[in-house]
UniProtKB/TrEMBL annotation:
Domain AB hydrolase-1, first and last residues per copy: 39-273
Native organism taxonomy: Bacteria, Bacillati, Actinomycetota, Actinomycetes, Mycobacteriales
This protein's name: 2-hydroxy-6-ketonona-2,4-dienedioic acid hydrolase
Regions crossing the membrane: none
Keywords: Hydrolase
Keyword hit for Phosphoprotein: no
GO terms, molecular function: hydrolase activity
GO cellular component terms attached to this protein's record: membrane
């Protein structure tokens, strides 16, 4: 029998806190671990996601960082602003979170949409970003088929949040389709059943709109402005873009380091946490 994967099992023995903070007037949910005297690390999930994307990474990183995994603006249990969400909205929320926790500077690691936001923050606020990790990051291209697939799966999951539709959205992220990912599915199902979440997901899907997405994309001139030491993590089975796209992103960022994780899809931090934590910490600690 396969071992049951549980969010609670991932967090057992970890000294962590779940709570809410006021980030520029936005009630923002977080998972937090580590000593406040240590450098700050903020972890940003992907489109339609939530802080649990990093439950397998909190313990390892809390040894070295005051580690925050947040529900991004309009996501999870964080307040929904009620309008289409574009990258500047997410960046403003991120900087408000940093202000709220008293972090003049932090390392920012983002997956998918989170990577897009992290990169833009590093461009617009270079003084706030100490080190940058782009993990299967979005924002470098507009693939109509991928955009359509994200909209279809995401809207189906909120309009009819039964087990199968939410599980399909989760499995799309993963390389190993044989697993059920039951605990992650249950966690996301609870979020997608929140009152008003259909409208919230429509606002989240704005970046998949072919008229909205282009003005948010990052090009060579944008990536070239990043001054923070940067790690680009890509995977062999990412459903949003191939390995060459990951390498292309890294090539546009001065001095960026590129790491490929085999056997993973869009969530390498969850699918292979041992490898991800090792690579991630080696970079963040400057080793």
């Amino acid at each position: 029998m396969p071992e049951f994967e549980s969010i609670w099992s991932d967090l057992q023995g970890v000294v962590f806190e779940q709570g809410y903070l006021d980030a520029g007037g936005v009630r923002t949910r977080y998972l937090r671990a580590g000593d406040p005297s240590k450098p700050v690390l903020v972890l940003l999930h992907g489109s339609g996601g939530h802080a649990e994307a990093y439950v397998r990474n909190l313990a390892a990183h809390a040894e070295h960082f005051w580690t925050w995994s947040i529900d991004m603006l309009g996501h999870g249990y964080t307040e929904k602003p009620g309008h289409p969400l574009e990258i500047p909205h997410y960046v403003a929320h991120l900087t408000a979170v940093l202000d709220a926790i008293g972090a003049g500077q932090a390392s920012i690691s983002g997956e998918s949409l989170g990577g897009w936001v992290a990169a833009r923050a590093a461009i617009d606020h270079p003084d706030r970003v100490q080190r940058l990790v782009l993990n299967t990051a979005g924002g470098s291209q507009a693939d109509p088929e991928v955009m359509k697939r994200i909209i279809t799966l995401s809207m189906a999951a909120v309009e009819n949040p039964d087990w199968e539709t939410v599980q399909a959205r989760i499995k799309w992220l993963m390389a190993d389709k044989s697993k059920g990912y039951d605990d992650i599915v249950a966690s996301r199902q609870r979020i997608y059943r929140l009152p008003g979440f259909i409208d919230a997901m429509r606002d989240i899907m704005a970046l998949q709109d072919p008229e909205i997405r282009p003005r948010n994309l990052l090009g060579p001139g944008d990536y070239g402005k990043i001054t923070a030491p940067t790690l680009v993590v890509w995977t062999s089975d990412d459903p949003t873009a191939d390995v060459e796209e990951g390498k292309r992103i890294a090539s546009m960022i001065p001095g960026a380091r590129f790491e490929l994780m085999p056997g993973c899809g869009h969530w390498p931090q969850y699918e292979d946490p041992a490898t991800f934590n090792r690579l991630h910490l080696e970079f963040l600690l400057g080793r």
